[in-house]
Amino acid sequence: MAELIPTLNSCTEKMRSGERRLAKRLEASLDNDCLCWYDIPVGQQQRRYPDFIILNPERGLLLLEVKDWRIEHLHNVNKAYVEYGHITKVNPIEQVRQCSYVVINQLKTDKQLIQQDDRYKGSLCMPYGYGVFFSHITRKQLNNAIPIDEQANLLPPHLIICSDEITDAVSHESFNQALWALFPYQFKTTITSVQRDRIRWHLFPEIRITHTQADFFQTDETDVGRGSYQSAPDIIRIMDIQQELLSRSLGEGHRVIHGVAGSGKTLILLYRCLYLAEVLTTPILVLCYNMTLAARLKCQMAERGLENRVQVFHFHGWCKDQCQQYHVNVDAFEGNPWEQHVEAVIDAVKEGKIPKEQYGALLIDEGHDFDSAWLALVTQMVDTKTNALLFMYDDAQSIYRKRGALGFSLASVGIQAQGRTSVLRLNYRNTKEILAFSYRFAQQHFDSRDDMHTAFMPPEAAGMQGVAPELKSFESLSKEVSYLISWIKREHSEGICWRDMAILCPSNSVGKYLEKALADTDIPHSHFFTAYDKKRYNPSDDNVSIFPLPSSKGLEFHSVAVIDSSHILNDGHDLADEARRLYVGFTRATQHLLVTWHQNNALSISLENSFNHRGN
Known about the structure:
Keywords: ATP-binding, Helicase, Hydrolase, Nucleotide-binding
Number of strands: 25
Oligomer: single chain
Domain UvrD-like helicase C-terminal: 423-526, 538-599
Mean pLDDT: 88
Strand content: 15-25%
GO molecular function: 3'-5' DNA helicase activity; ATP binding; DNA binding; hydrolase activity
Protein name: DNA helicase II
Strand order of the largest sheet: 1-2-3-4-8-9
InterPro entries: DNA_helicase_UvrD-like_C (IPR014017), DNA_helicase_UvrD/REP (IPR000212), NERD (IPR011528), P-loop_NTPase (IPR027417)
């Protein structure tokens, strides 16, 4: 069974009858390793919309155009145009041919997708073809309407599939033969998984990931019309098939994604913003808890030119902005300023002083850190006409609330997503070694209870091998920091950029000590301990970043050092809160992880046990 992207259920309503019929047949008849994309634009400046793109590793790349035309309305056919009814349309063969050339010319710019043999040098390394499916015209009707000897120059028979050739009575084998006959030639070689992903990288820029996710929405200045394309790097990073499938299949209404750390939740959120910005005219709101994550998301929106379409806030910042925008007095409410702003907005919405339904879409990242009252508030901000809401969470990373699980039903706060929750278990961020260590450590402390909405899901590694985390114990904080400095310098000497390294601290006091120690070195660094600093975080700045552990949520770096890791913030024997903070910190590292401590206690014992049992 082929993989249809997006899923048939998510797009069947917008399909014409012929498209729906062909989609069902493609999905049922083609092999499991076939990918079929429906109605997804290709190209970069001049976007083309082929009805279907089929990638079969054994056969090649095939583009199909579907026409629900009836023979009695087809008149005056020539090579370039046809008269259908009283409207002049592009000849569908010419339409799909031009679309295929846009695709093929783009793929030919990649040296890893062209042949190197002298005889065929510069040609694509795979067969390609195109064709048209007439869903309401039989072969006999076509032959009666256009003499066979004239069809070759108008609607070539070998590039046409007629309605009677893919009926339910036609076997899978016969259907496949009709498809593969659209290819002018065949190769003995097959398309590798690496080539498949490079094809996807070129065809669909929106699924690209750069080395750091900060560049995900980098603007492409390519001009297809002049035959100029963005060249592909030797090593590419893109969404995997399941991430792309989920991103494109979210559909309308409320949606929930429950994913482990590093599963691509934020990546999917970014893709969703890109899509919504194209289809909505009203503002889009993105909320998270962390100031640093909000700052990073703002940078990504700005790089794509979406800063005027997508508003990004951390939740308390949004409440403050609402109070200022609608002149709400916060002095009547108790608590610290952040609490005052929240209560003031909740009250003002009830009183009608702050309007509801301000946004065409609401997207919530790291939703596990939101209180039920906050969610009940912000869900009222979605325009009921668009009703677009995406809620993403991972209970294992809930570090701001006492409970790990949400502790309330999503329906109780206005999120109507029953039967529309997707689960992401695969971790793509971390190496197997980092992920295994992090999970072994967390598993000792997390509650594994499963309820309707939350459970600590064991993450599954996507397969990236790496080096084991480095764990070290020291006699004092000064010796710990001394080793850290040498580790950072070694990483940099091995080619790791300063901006691809981060130091995570359990407390501000340790961060200040570390900052003072780094001031005496030549290591460029930035600290993010105050609200002022966090709001100004920019992942493009070439400095080593120093964060409190919680502020690293949603970020990622090649090399991460977690220092003073056995520091216990709260008294008591329950180390679950500390474990959650550390789990978040450990899973920020994509390749190299250093964990150090100088206090020997229950937490340090747990860390050592997790490391020593790695072979079990």
